[in-house]
Each structure stands twice: as structure tokens, then as C-alpha cells.
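Ticket #4471: structure export looks truncated?
Reporter: QA, pipeline team
Priority: medium

Steps to reproduce: submit the single chain below to the structure queue and open the exported record.
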Amino acid sequence: MHFRTRAIHVGQERDPATGAIVPPLHVASTFVQPDVSMSAAYDYARTASPTRNAFEATLAALDNGTRALAFASGMAATHCVTHLLAPGDRILTGTDIYGGTWRLFNKVLAGHGIAITAVDTTDPAAVRRAIGPDVKLVWIESPGNPLLSITEIAACAEIAHAGGALLACDATVATPALSRPLDHGADIVMHSATKSIGGHSDLLGGALVTRDPALGERLHWLQNATGGVMGPFEAFLCSRGLKTLELRVHAQSATALALAEWLAAHPRVKAVHYPGLVSHPGHAVARRQMTGGFGSLLSFELDGDVAAARTVAESTRLFQLAVSLGAVESLIELPAVMSHGSYDPAARRAVGIADGLVRLAVGLEAYEDLRDDLAAALT
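Actual output as written to the record:
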């Protein structure tokens, strides 16, 4: 079945009791057992619930995985992966990563005996030089956030596996509608379901998807032990969001590309970061590992100071000043003080996140209206 067909039908079977076309929302926290063996499919909602399992089944099918796990947030999902590590292990990660991930790695894990090394993962040679026997996890984002860098997933998978490490890819920006990292050798895919999967700015959630059933079972054990699971209401909304994911993301990607091309020609803009542009250094790799578009996120730098960037971010009408991405509403923000404000300033600047960088999360409004909104702000 095609992607959009799986999104509607896999894991979303009609209710056998009533014939309801939409599976019912199960809010129960506990389930009556037939005997004391606890062998029933469901016993306690932290371990599993019908509504969460339905969403997980759909997402696993869309990512071409064998197991999906739904979490209370993207950071809860990321944190679960790091529980595979022990003190003395090292994480090799990229420099263009979500601010919350940077904070978890550098401000939490580093204080518990997990070493962190950040390199430019767009350069496989840099990844190869940094790998070592103590590296147990290579964590990448493609496209990256907020500079939209493109990391070659297959190359990183080969390097990680040769060194005895797992490769995890944060694919929040791409979504499974555009990129399926498991097909390129990744062991784990992480999604912030808050973003495009939910798609409507009304839920908080995260997910992991694995190729290997045994790895999926290890992560489920950790999820159950630590408890950061997705609730039934959020799972219900995520299942609904998946049904329109491809249509939304393809439309948003087309608008984002048009805006990137328009911004690249604007006299006040000195740089645009978007992998759909032929001038983007990762464009060729993006074309190989993404299908249907290049995502709804882009960023740009003005030919001016930080105050000018702040004025633009605070002057738009349709682009609303807020963090997040992937929803139907278009958003604008300054990563240095908003989405990536958890970075140490020196570390942020060292990896190229300029204080005046402006990030756009393109929604479903008409291109012409969004263009005109930016034009007015840039005047």
C-alpha cells in the first residue's frame, strides 16, 4: 500500500463491537485480568493501551519499522534512548541539533558519566575520525535544526555500525512523509510528535521507531520502567494527524521552497538555509534520501544587526512569534534566544547559530499571503 493509504488504514481498523469507522478512545488506566497470570494483552496503561498501540502500529508502518513507542514528549523519547548507555560511554552527535537535545546531552548526561562529542555530521570523514570504542550512540538530525544541514544517513550508519555503535536519527523536520531513516541504515528514528505528526499545535508527544524487534523490546522495557508514556488523548490526536500527514507536509514543503527562493533574491537577506535550494551544500544528498519535498522549516540571516532580525520577527502578522514547527499555522522565531536558547552562547555561535538567525516554520496558509507578510516585515 502507498504511504497515505497505510496512514489511514494500518492500525486504524473499525471497531468490531460497533462498526465505528474510527477506533474508540480508551482512557482506562487499568484492565481486568481473567486470572492472576497477568497474561492478557493489556494490564496497566503505562505498559500498553489500545489507543496508544493503534498510533504506534500506524507509525511503525509509515517508517518501515517493526516497533514504534509513543512517549509524553520528544525529549522523553530521546531520554529513553540514552538509557541504553552506561557511565563511561560516549555519544557522538551533530552540531546542528535541537536545543532541548543539546541541553539533555550537555547539561544532564554529561553530569552522569556520559561523554558527549559534537562534530559536523555532514562530513562523514569528521564522524569517522571521532568514532571510538567508547562511542555507543551516534545521534544525528537530518535536516538539522535550525540551520537545515543535511547529514548522509547511510554513511553515518556504516561508520556507527563499524564502530559497534547504534545510529539514531531525529527525523522530526523531515517526518516519515519525506524521509525514512531506517531504510538508510539507522537503528532508531525519533520524532517529536508535537510537530508535524500532531500537526495542529494541540498536543505534546514523541515517538521512537526501530528496525530490530529486539531493540524495540529493550526500549519498551525502559519506557515502561521510566514511565514517560503518551496519554490516550494525545495518541488519538496523533492517529488523526497521521491520516493527513503526507498531504500537509507536501503542501508545506512546496510553500517553504517558494519562500526560500523569494528570500534568497531579497536585497535585505544575505543567506537562506533550506535544503530544497540548489545552492544548499546538502541539496544533492537531500534529493537522494528525501522524497516529496524538503520540509516546512527554513531559516535566514539578514544583511543587518540582531536588532533588525528582532524587528522582523516581531513585525509579522501571519507568521506568529512562537517556537515549534510542523503545524497548520506559520511561526517565526529567533533560535538564539528562543528554540535554541538552552545552548551556551559560545557553543551556539561556534556551530554557526548566529544571534540574528530567523527561523520560519511554514504552515498551510497561501504562499502569496505569507510572502506579503514577510515583505511588509522586511520593508
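Status: closed, not a bug. The export was complete when the record was re-opened. Leaving a note from the reviewer for reference: The chain has two domains: 3-240, 245-378.
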